[in-house]
Design a protein that fits this description.
The protein is of the alpha+beta class. It contains nine helices and twelve strands. It has helices spanning 11-18, 28-37, 83-99, 119-134, 168-178, 185-193, 196-208, 256-270, 285-293, and strands at residues 2-5, 45-50, 53-61, 71-77, 106-112, 139-148, 162-164, 218-221, 227-236, 239-247, 276-281, 297-306. The two termini are 33 Å apart. It binds coenzyme A. Keywords: Transferase.
Length: 310
């Protein structure tokens, strides 16, 4: 079996393979658009060839300004037998190519709510997670996807916090402080691998590179003028999102997350948002409860396969 990155002459085969979407994020429209703008690349797409025929394909997604991909967007198989070893091999090629740079690519799979009752979704997901685990991405985090639409009602704005924009230095400092006691699996993983400062810096860089406006970000202060937390309303390719939100450990337990989420929602709606999305880990109960209190609805699940901590 030959493993290689794709080339222009593979396009017809790729188009045929991606037509069967299964649990993959890739669609024909997304593929063509992302190949044109650098979010998909031949250098980030791998095929396995058997006797001159492509039998498997892995497509990775990344941001145009980065040299490495962030996550697998699709895995396809048209060979005989078990796809798991072939997919694992394809995933491993990307991990090997970027591990030296210290990058930690992941595999994100989007499934609808109630997927456990849909046998074909369960089967497609299990094969892909098995391949990811075999390639080293053995930790799986289930993230709840929340959505806000105007018909769900605009949450009331805070009467106890005051909000202000701030510079990167101030956001970096609050990102470092909020890491303490975080229930977010990706944060816990990042901090186990690097310092809180390095992880916060990376977060700042990622949120800064997102397509939302930097001046939407807010710090929240209580009546005594004490810093309580922050909210990062922004956007990704799919539209407006609540990128990040945090309450400083010493202020937790007063539902200040509600005030921050309400403010972030107002900022985005003020900028014209007609749909807002946000994710949180299934295990981050306080955050999930906050989304639900503010009228956000859980519409889907994101499975994230990543390297284990340590
Ligand atoms: C998620 C978060 C914003 C919630 O803060 P909050 O508004 O103070 O939470 P609530 O007041 O609704 O807390 C509800 C309960 O959960 C507890 N709780 C909140 N955050 C907690 C944490 N990180 N660890 C353990 N318990 C926590 C509260 O003490 C409270 O307990 P109680 O009912 O016994 O008093 C906060 O935990 C945080 O900043 N975490 C780190 C960043 C993060 O995970 N952001 C979300 C991802 S975008």
């Amino acid at each position: 079996m030959i493993i290689r990155t794709t080339v222009e002459s593979d396009l017809d085969t790729i188009h045929t393979l991606i037509a069967d979407q299964s649990v993959n994020t890739v669609t024909r429209e997304r593929y063509d658009e992302f190949m044109a703008n650098g979010q998909y690349r031949h250098a980030w797409s791998w095929v396995a060839e058997q006797d001159g025929r492509i039998v498997a394909l892995a497509i990775w997604w990344g941001m145009p300004q980065y040299d490495h991909p962030f996550s697998v967007d699709g895995l396809y198989f048209v060979g005989d037998g078990d796809p798991v070893p072939v997919w694992a091999e394809l995933i491993r090629h990307t991990l090997d190519a970027h591990a030296a740079e210290g990058e930690q690519p992941e595999y994100h799979i989007f499934v609808p709510n109630g997927w456990r009752e849909q046998p074909e979704v369960v089967a497609a997901l299990e094969l892909r997670l098995a391949a990811a685990a075999r390639a080293g991405l053995s930790e799986v985090t289930e993230r709840l996807r929340y959505e806000w639409l105007p018909e769900y009602g605009l949450p009331a704005r805070s009467t106890r916090l005051r909000f202000e924009p701030a510079d990167d230095e101030a956001f970096l400092a609050v990102f470092v402080r909020v890491i303490e006691g975080s229930l977010d699996a990706a944060t816990v993983r990042a901090v186990a691998q690097m310092s809180a400062e390095a992880s916060a810096k990376e977060d700042l860089e990622v949120y800064r590179s997102m397509p939302g406006e930097r001046d939407w970000w807010r710090l929240g202060y209580d009546e005594a003028g004490e810093l309580v937390g922050f909210v990062v309303p922004t956007a990704n390719n799919g539209g407006p999102v609540i990128g990040y939100l945090g309450v400083l450990a010493e202020h937790r337990g007063h539902r200040y997350s509600d005030d921050l989420l309400a403010e972030g929602t107002h900022v985005l709606v003020g900028a014209g948002a007609e749909r807002i999305r946000a994710d949180t880990d299934l295990t981050n109960r306080p955050m999930a409860a906050c989304f639900e209190r503010l009228g956000y609805r859980n519409h889907a699940v994101r499975m994230v396969a990543s390297f284990p901590v340590g």
